[in-house]
């Protein structure tokens, strides 16, 4: 059986990669993928703690987190399509011209 610490290290690594992607990328699609990576890291954390404590609460919350991630992708893809239609690019720095 794999110890829970390995899952937590994997989750921390995934979260750091996602955070790095959010802070350094300007492409909206890569931005969305980085957020998904961070949500999956949180789901791994929930399942790891559920394994350690021996109850199913963390697994149930991870299922809710997967539903939240699916809704976030649907809304994110819609935003990316509108961004591409209005600016012919998916660079997240371009919509700053829409300010007052």
Structure described in brief:
The chain has 100 residues and is mainly alpha-helical. It has three helices and no strands. It is elongated, with a radius of gyration of 17 Å.
Task: Detail the topology: elements first, then pairings.
Blueprint: H1 4-24, H2 28-53, H3 57-87
Keywords, separated by commas or semicolons:
100 residues, single chain
What would your notes on this structure say?
The chain is built from 3 helices and no strands. The protein has helices at 4-24, 28-53, 57-87. The mean pLDDT is 90.
Mean of all residue-level pLDDT scores = 90
Strand elements, count: 0
Low-confidence stretches are none
Q: What fraction of residues sit in β-strands?
A: under 5%
Order of helices and strands: HHH
Distance between the termini: 58 Å
- Supply the number of helical segments: 3
What portion of residues is helical? over 70%
User: What's the assembly state of these chains?
Assistant: single chain
What would you call the structural class? mainly alpha
Q: Strand count, sense and closure of the main sheet?
A: none
Shape: elongated
């Amino acid at each position: 059986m794999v110890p829970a610490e390995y899952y937590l290290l994997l989750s921390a690594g995934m979260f750091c990669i996602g955070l790095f992607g959010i802070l350094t990328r300007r492409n909206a699609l890569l931005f969305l993928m980085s957020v998904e990576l961070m949500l999956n890291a949180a789901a791994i954390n929930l399942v790891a703690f559920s394994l350690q404590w021996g109850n199913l609460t963390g697994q149930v919350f991870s299922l809710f987190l997967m539903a939240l991630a699916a809704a976030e992708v649907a809304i994110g893809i819609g935003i990316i399509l509108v961004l591409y239609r209005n600016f012919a690019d998916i660079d997240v720095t371009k919509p700053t011209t829409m300010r007052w």
